[in-house]
Design a protein that fits this description.
It comes from Streptomyces rhizosphaericus. This protein is of the alpha+beta class. The chain contains 18 helices and 29 strands. It has a seven-stranded mixed sheet with strand order 3-5-1-14-11-12-13, with helices on both faces. Strands 9-17-16-15-10 form a five-stranded mixed sheet. A hairpin with a 2-residue loop joins strand 18 and strand 19. The radius of gyration is 27 Å and the shape is globular.
Amino acid sequence: MIGQAVDRVDGPLKATGRATYAYEHWEAGQPLYGFIVGATIGKGRITRIDTENAEGAPGVQLVMTYLNAPAQGPRDESIPFEYWRAQPMLTGPDVHFYGEPVALVVAETFEQARDAADLVEVEYRAGRGRFDFGEFEDDTYIPKTVNAGLPTDTAVGDFDAGFAGAEVKVDEQYTTPYEFSLPIEPNASMVAPRGEDLVVYVSCQITDAARDSVAATLMMDPERVHIVTPFVGGGFGSKLGIHSETILAALAARTLGRPVKLTLTRQQVFQLVGMRPTSNQRVRLGAGRDGQLAAIAHDVTMHTNPDVEYAEQTAATVRSLYAAPHRLTSHRLTALDLPRGTDVRAPGEAPGMLSVESAMDELADALGMDPVELRIRNEPTVDPERNVPYSDRHLVECLREGARRFGWENRPATPASVREGRWLIGYGMSAAIRGHFQGPTTVRVRLEPDGTAVIQTDMTDIGTGTYTILTQVGAEGLGLPLERVRIDLGRSDHPSSWGSGGSWGATNSSTAVHRACAALRTKLLDAACGDTRSPLHGRDPADAVFSDGNVAIGDASEALREIVARHHPDGVEAEGKTRFMGDDPNYSDYSINTYGAHFAEVGVDADTAEIRLRRMLSVFSVGRVFNPKTARSQLIGGMIWGVGAALEEEAVVDSRSGAFVNRDFAGYLVPVHGDIPADIDAVVLEGYDDKANDLGAKGIGEVGICGSGAAVANAVFNATGVRVRDFPITIEKLLPGLPAMV
């Protein structure tokens, strides 16, 4: 079953509205509703807060501020990952960023809570906040490490000498804006007291982190916190940790002894969930006339929050990508009084490759060389910084196959040289790389007396198809039809995992299922082959074949349900596990990544500078694929996001208050159907990476966005001859440089 294009097993539930999301659970009874009051300054202190009018409003049950909020646990910096730490709220009068919760109103209905929130009177003493990245960009510091524990800086060889001696140089700066995850389902939760316990229905990506974070904040035994999150309406990193809505709902539920629902409005999501940091990236490339890179450097400065540091691993992108003997990468942080940075789809690679792959296109133009050929000429034989072999690298094959399928030979050799009517036509391409990660995950597989299998883990399905691929892996592992495998996800009472995120979810959980099924097969075979009542008695278990609910050895076979009924009348189970990649020698002995190549054609209106994507094709190497249908969907989704990063997405900060000006979908633009042509496709090469895991598979959720925006940006340059280095590429940035047309 692995590798088959199976329809989503949860599809009928979602299509008919029977998939229950965080805000839709009713088993706890009629809830109360909460609404957050956010600060209207970006830095300062509350000098007066009056809740009397709000408390007297219809239906109001509670108004919580720092004056009456329960004591909470501190954020413990010794916990290595932010998402497992306490997230205390309403702890004092200080305001750290615009929109920060200053009060919570709880009422009988959502409308009552929202209306009463307007009655909370708050006066502030505003301080001078640091809101403008450009103003404070030179005031930086060096973080100890960057995201994922990667080194802050790296150096190989002598970059200054190598760059100085290069015949052809590129030395440019590229800027990327604040960007948001913005899944369809806003961050939401419902918390229900159950005796001394709390049941937390929440939209989150890592169940284990949510449980520990709630428990640490409320100073509870984690065993008394029960997370329920069977369906998540998208995450893209924004739900790896929990946020104010969950903590405040939990505080209110414990205080009132009643279930409390709390969701963020779309406008509040922009202020309370975190975002991809803005960045200024300097990329330096030095090469010979033959295109061979002698020196490569990537230096990044980005925003961080002064209280919760986040250093996106943006410069780490180039460390494994191209060969060059002299290398340099660095990260620097500028503290601003803005919401904290957080993981947004493909953290590091998404903004990093937008710059690096644009610079590679600039180098190709300076050399007069085909951009595909330039990348092939700089293909490394070993990881150029770690000096270890690649586990499985097929980037060159992606480049060549993509060029062939796309018709790259028709690319205009001279920028701004092809026109169709009023449209300037251009082609662009880029490479893609994304590190492959592995985290600790445990899965329990249970075979019931009737021969059906139940797979349990706290792993979440964030819309990517986890229910389906785990069904496929379980069905293959036990030789069962798909309909006889049931997946039970998203409950903290199940074995723990690292959830969904970082492109690790599918491979972690599937590998654990695979191992659990192997352990279960061993139990069944030991029982049957040692039982004189079984047709399999005395047979060699090594020759066993599990298929269609039976196990056969040679010409003898027996139904699984008969073995279970005879030896395990209450059912039999086994667990499978994966470990943290730091404990797996393959991850130190090999450079394990996914790869791709993107190709795009754009049209640019010669008079208005309107940019239209005409077609796009990407080719990927990701090891073994669990389900081609869901994989293609994920890859194309990432490609489209890259188009948005290149042309549309940009959150703008009001430098007076620290508020995001365009905090809704009217002002913060993302690609819609009218922006994306029907001619868009993702092709996956056959593959199997035996160093990644038992199944030979690697994550695909993020490699689709890596570099795809650069392909579009490079196509815009090819169409117009205008290079825009301040992303996104908008009309006002492109129009002044368009060539005059006769």
